[in-house]
């Protein structure tokens, strides 16, 4: 749980502190006048809240400076103390975990990861996540006491109180009490959230979805999952199930939640099972199993079988994108996850077919964040917590 100060400030001052930190954390040095213009707050409020933040270590007041053109009292100048603490972004996927350590501007300081076999007990999975956490924290040169919060993403619906919706066998694999154990062991709050929700936060913050407030991110690797943003607001649903894709089992031409990587791999494997089919996939794969990456590579070399597979994958993906476009009418839908870079090759076919399914087709793009999309969003999730609770937190890493 967060370490709190002795006195709980009024709600309004808490909100105002969040506004000021949100502006300062993305800006350089700002004057009081600049903060007034950026936040709409009064001069008295800006200076009162800045005084609180300076005392707590969140903000540094710089020498006001002066030149011959200055008339009257020089403006106070403020800078966000990005090293006042640190946050972690933790992606706990089905096959691996990625941990990112960042300062309070969200700048990545270190990254670590571990792979899962799928046979681990809950405690063994927690141990592997913990190893990645320890490596990232050590590489960043900080300690547990310097970490204010960690965002944690899992491939399961998570409600507003941080509970996993365990109505599906796949989702139940993530209902292991991971965040409680991490918090108990390290002393910082671990904030659980659905991975696709974190992906849309990450894209809206640092990806191709910047400045787009009506946005969907479709995680499209092994299993489809969607994060939804409407007017800049993340959608959860009553039990955290907004954006879950189980309904795809009812969609003609789709039939399940299998993502782009899984579908390409399974179709490629089926092609090689027929010795009469001539494809360079055989040479590329050799004795090893077919992967989605090999299917995309074969298609890029002109292999007709692989190109046919990708045409089928694109048609299926277009139907998935179309359902999201019809239901939520976003401006932009982003294909995300480790498969995103390869999926760029599918975009022309997907966009062409979208117009046959909906009269308001969105733009479609591939994420530039690769396999860090969830961990980047988890960092943003942790930073949101920091900004919202700044006046309740006691800092230990005051480095000016």
TrEMBL record:
MF annotations from Gene Ontology: DNA binding; kinase activity
InterPro entries, sorted: ATPase_NBD (IPR043129), ROK (IPR000600), Tscrpt_reg_IclR_N (IPR005471), WH-like_DNA-bd_sf (IPR036388), WH_DNA-bd_sf (IPR036390)
UniProt KW keywords: Kinase, Transferase
GO biological process: regulation of DNA-templated transcription
The HTH iclR-type domain, residue ranges: 18-60
Family: Belongs to the ROK (NagC/XylR) family.
Name of the protein described by the UniProt record: Putative NBD/HSP70 family sugar kinase
